[in-house]
Amino acid sequence: MKKVVVTGAAGFLGSCLTKKLLVEGNQVIGLDNLMTGRVSNLAEIRNHANFMFIQMDVVSEHILSMKPLAGVDEIYHLASPASPKFYQSAALDTMAVNTIGTKNMLELAKSNGARLVYTSTSEAYGDPEVHPQQEMYRGNVNTWGPRACYDEAKRLGEVYCYEYYRQFQVRVKVARIFNTYSANLRNDDGRVISNFVNQAIRGQDITVYGDGSQTRSFCYVDDTIQGLMRMMEKEAATGEIINLGNPLEYTVLQVAELVKKLTKSNSRITFHDLPKDDPKLRCPVIVKAKKLLGWEPQITLEEGLLRTIEIYRSQLSELAGGDGA
Q1: Largest CA distance in the chain
Q2: In a domain, 33, yes or no
Q3: Is 150 a catalytic residue?
Q4: Which residue of the set 150, 165, 181, 220 is catalytic?
Q5: pLDDT tens by residue, 101-129
Q6: Which residues partner with 30 through β-bridges?
Q7: Per-residue model confidence (pLDDT) at position 83
Q8: Is the peptide bond before 132 cis (omega within 30 degrees of 0)?
Q9: What's the domain count of the chain?
Q10: In a domain, 80, yes or no
Q11: In this structure, is residue 213 part of a structural domain?
């Protein structure tokens, strides 16, 4: 049985990954300061015999001396706000968790001889001038803007990973994750899928920023989790940066129209000012993931949206039932 640490365990990706790791028979220690994560995401596993949850910030200087973390075999460092809504309102915390927090997790990996997967982001490419994006592209990031606290912090986190790999031979792997979704996203998350689906099933206006021509590539959470676990497992991924995302590209307007169709919603699609530095194009090249991990997404956008819509609808019905009780 492997001893695995997951930071950001109460968040969207972290909670899904934690549940999968437990199913696979691992002992899992989940760390989260609950800034954007929710304890309710872990409700079904809180009493699992092989799970321990510790409410703590990975930036804390005390984290390396915590006895439960001794002897760890694997570390998934997912902790960080990931939605612009949240990271822009907590810019300094976002910078800290991706730099100081990353250094702490690398130190933990170094002292235990553990493997570490660091979840970086497609935002490392900024508003790209090269399309689609492959790992060797160095990006076009604005350091003097509202997204920089996330984009640049993730990029510096990658540099920490590089130096710990180069200087100390820490078995680190960096995943650049593209847009991932499922109903596990908070309904107040502010990202495209959670916004569109919740607005559509409530009959509210579906809000598109800009003219909707900007593109994104959406990967269902099960596929992303599988990619992260393959990265941890494959020795060939050590010391590598690998894109994890779905290479099928859609305009934001196409996604809004598809959500409206699948929900059979009468919502209007409305258009609003595009946020500053919002990327116009976003699509991964996943040749490296296919070659080194034997991984590529299996779930289509339509299938993933249908799953997401069904669960959000169920949650909305439960809330409505509770209000009427």
Answers
A1: 61
A2: yes
A3: yes
A4: 150
A5: 999 999 999 999 999 999 999 999 999 99
A6: 6, 53
A7: 86
A8: yes
A9: 1
A10: yes
A11: no
